[in-house]
Design a protein that fits this description.
By secondary structure, the protein is of the alpha+beta class. Helix content is 27%, strand content 23%. The strands form 3 sheets. Strands 2-9-5-4-3 form a 5-stranded mixed sheet. The protein has a 4-stranded antiparallel sheet with strand order 1-7-8-6. Strands 10-11 form a two-stranded antiparallel sheet. The structure holds zinc ion.
């Protein structure tokens, strides 16, 4: 579930709170650890990260990357259900906690994952992390022209093109709905049907939606990085509510194992699959 805006806010907090700290203990907690922790080095999470000092934390797409004063790298891809948490030893652990990193000051960084859909990798090379190398560019690092060029090979529904990660990184189901609402584009229109002006609108909507969302999430999340503030959304998960722009009841379509929300008035077109 965390997408670019949430992970960017998490990264900012972690940068303030854990950079420079040394991990004193690494505790893997079963059964979730067995499902989400992936050691690509065979060196062992505990062996490799005990006494390691966190040097940098970066975000790339929907991944967080931790670098240490040792060769090992920690790469976290929380997918739909994974969350990070800052805590102290006194704070109750979430049931599906997979790993706890304890620092010298007894504060902790934890990863928990209710459905064990995410992955926490230990690696010495990000090229070995699944889905990492095929990722498209960061949305904020791509020009209008580059965006247009990148979309060209894709012919399918525009929502699918945005969320697949290899056209542009960091956008998932929720923010794709929000971006397409801002762009006033029906999520199931084919990329090939979009005019040049519509692609332009989409580019602008990606920039403004993601940037504005980071601002809001930063404030609402604070240091509670396990929270996922989304009340401010305009359409996503707002089925049956009024479109903030025109008042039309927000539609919901279940397709491709996910829910899509949009406004039929603001985002016309896209008659599909008999719906
Ligand atoms: Zn509307």
């Amino acid at each position: 579930m965390p997408e670019l805006p949430e992970l960017e806010a998490v990264r900012e907090v972690l940068n303030k709170r854990v950079i420079g700290k040394k991990i004193e203990r690494v505790e893997l907690i079963q059964p979730t650890a067995a499902l989400v922790m992936r050691d690509l080095t065979r060196g062992g999470f505990v062996e490799s990260l005990t006494d390691a000092k966190i040097k940098t934390i970066a975000r790339r797409g929907k991944f967080l990357l931790f670098d240490f004063d040792k060769p090992a790298q920690l790469v976290i891809n929380p997918k739909l259900t994974g969350r990070l948490q800052l805590a102290t030893g006194k704070d109750k652990r979430y049931k599906k906690t997979a790993v706890v990193f304890t620092f010298a000051d007894e504060t902790e960084l934890r990863y928990f994952d209710d459905k064990a859909m995410g992955q926490v990798y230990l690696t010495d090379d990000t090229q070995r992390v699944p889905d990492f190398t095929r990722m498209g560019p960061e949305p904020f690092e791509i020009t209008r022209e580059q965006f247009r060029e990148r979309l060209k090979p894709y012919r399918g529904e525009i929502k699918g093109v945005l969320t697949r990660g290899d056209s542009v990184a960091g956008i998932g189901n929720a923010y794709a709905d929000e971006i397409l609402w801002h762009a006033e584009l029906h999520p199931f229109r084919k990329r090939t049907q979009l005019t040049s002006e519509e692609i332009e609108r989409l580019y602008d909507a990606i920039q403004t939606t993601l940037r504005e969302s980071i601002e809001i999430v930063r404030v609402e999340m604070g240091e509670n990085i396990h929270l996922k503030p989304r009340d401010f959304f305009n359409v996503h998960m707002k089925t049956g509510e009024a479109c903030p722009r025109c008042g039309t009841t927000i539609s919901e379509i279940s397709a491709h194992q996910r829910i899509t929300n949009f406004c039929r008035t603001c985002q016309p077109g896209g008659l599909i699959r008999g719906m």
